Amino acid sequence: xxxxxxxxxxxxxxxxxxxxxxxxxxxxxxxxxxxxxxxxxxxxxxxxxxxxxxxxxxxxxxxxxxxxxxxxxxxxxxxxxxxxxxxxxxxxxxxxxxxxxxxxxxxxxxxxxxxxxxxxxxxxxxxxxxxxxxxxxxxxxxxxxxxxxxxxxxxxxxxxxxxxxxxxxxxxxxxxxxxxxxxxxxxxxxxxxxxxxxxxxxxxxxxxxxxxx
Length: 213
Hints:
This protein has helices at residues 2-27, 84-93, 106-112, 125-130, 144-153, 174-193, 203-210; strands at 37-41, 47-50, 64-67, 74-76, 99-103, 133-136, 159-162, 166-171. It is an alpha+beta fold.
């Protein structure tokens, strides 16, 4: 009985944390209305994910779904985001990832629609916090093909641009993921404001900054 009480208390605490950081994604303009989704790995391996069509910026506790890590079935809550295959695949493939934000911030998504290759190293935060930004050609949302492509990319990149779709940001926790998304949006906004006539950091500087803390 005591174990069940402790388990319930832990879950309630995790729901509060999830909601807090989901709302921050809205506060920082990383999502609009129901455009994004969020997931987080619990200590037992199961996942919390945002409900289908929920607004992260205004999410309520009953709009967070608990998913069984073993087979992806719903343990508690309503229908999860349609991008559950993407979140599930990354979590299974990459044990270093505990939090995933799929968002569509304005500047970053604009550059996700560019046909030309982009160097995002316009501010020092990119090499320090983000590293390599990977681009994936358009693949239908919610598909197994997209999930597999993003999961593979997550092994070498924590910031993934999905053509005409948005971004996938991964990390060890909520704060890290939100910070990466905000810094990436800042870099993309600078590139757009300069009409792509921007200077980037030298390759030597990028290498030096990778180890900067």
